[in-house]
């Protein structure tokens, strides 16, 4: 598969494993897993011709590590970002003192009024580095990087989780824990 095909397939997998499994008639279990064989069968019926080798390639080469197989590679799921109800089974973790969130310039005023909210997702997504946050922010226009005082939040009783692909997750971030990055 070329890069364009891999990206297109990754986006489709994100759709069905994070948001709309019913699109191709699959079901996610309570932890977000679905059987690989069923996924391949339903994708092929839907017109998204894919073989097991190609699925492994997408999972292995996805630069954001969005997907994971279980130990014996019979199940697959998205690592985070679901809008459907799942319990990913992550345990609370102590975060670094500072994490980062990328957003678009037009959202900054609202964020500093209300904080960061998960909206239709399960969690707010945070990065350990500004470069990753900047890439996320670019998807929303002119990027703005927000520093999250995650260490202080943790001391104040907020829970944090880290997904299998290294994305930090939390329920919400009140505006008092946010600072605009000086490295604009």
TrEMBL record:
E.C. code: 2.7.1.-
Gene3D superfamilies associated with the record: 3.20.170.30, RNA 2'-phosphotransferase, Tpt1/KptA family, N-terminal domain
Superkingdom of the organism of origin: Bacteria
InterPro entries: Ptrans_KptA/Tpt1, RNA_2'-PTrans_C, RNA_2'-PTrans_KptA, RNA_2'-PTrans_N
HAMAP family in UniProt: KptA (MF_00299)
Function: Removes the 2'-phosphate from RNA via an intermediate in which the phosphate is ADP-ribosylated by NAD followed by a presumed transesterification to release the RNA and generate ADP-ribose 1''-2''-cyclic phosphate (APPR>P). May function as an ADP-ribosylase.
GO MF, one annotated term: NAD+ poly-ADP-ribosyltransferase activity
Enzyme class name: transferase
Similarity remark: Belongs to the KptA/TPT1 family.
BP term (GO), one: tRNA splicing, via endonucleolytic cleavage and ligation
UniProt-recorded name of the protein: Probable RNA 2'-phosphotransferase
PANTHER family from the UniProt entry: PUTATIVE PHOSPHOTRANSFERASE, TRNA 2'-PHOSPHOTRANSFERASE 1
Organism, scientific name: Rapidithrix thailandica
One Pfam family this sequence matches: PTS_2-RNA
Record's keyword terms, sorted: NAD, Transferase
Keyword Protein transport in annotation: no
């Amino acid at each position: 598969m070329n890069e364009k095909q891999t990206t297109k397939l990754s986006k489709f997998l994100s759709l069905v494993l994070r948001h709309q499994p019913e699109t191709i008639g699959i079901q996610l279990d309570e932890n977000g897993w679905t059987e690989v064989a069923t996924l391949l069968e339903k994708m092929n019926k839907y017109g998204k011709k894919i073989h097991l080798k190609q699925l492994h390639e997408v999972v292995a080469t996805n630069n954001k590590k969005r997907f994971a197989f279980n130990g014996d590679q019979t199940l697959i799921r998205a690592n985070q970002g679901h809008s459907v109800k799942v319990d990913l089974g992550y345990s609370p973790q102590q975060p670094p003192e500072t994490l980062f969130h990328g957003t678009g310039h037009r959202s900054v005023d609202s964020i500093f009024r209300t904080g960061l909210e998960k909206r239709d997702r399960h969690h707010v997504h945070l990065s350990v580095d500004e470069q990753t946050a900047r890439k996320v922010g670019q998807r929303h226009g002119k990027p703005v990087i927000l520093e999250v005082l995650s260490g202080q939040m943790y001391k104040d009783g907020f829970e944090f989780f880290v997904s299998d692909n290294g994305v930090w997750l939390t329920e919400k971030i009140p505006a008092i824990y946010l600072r605009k990055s000086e490295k604009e």
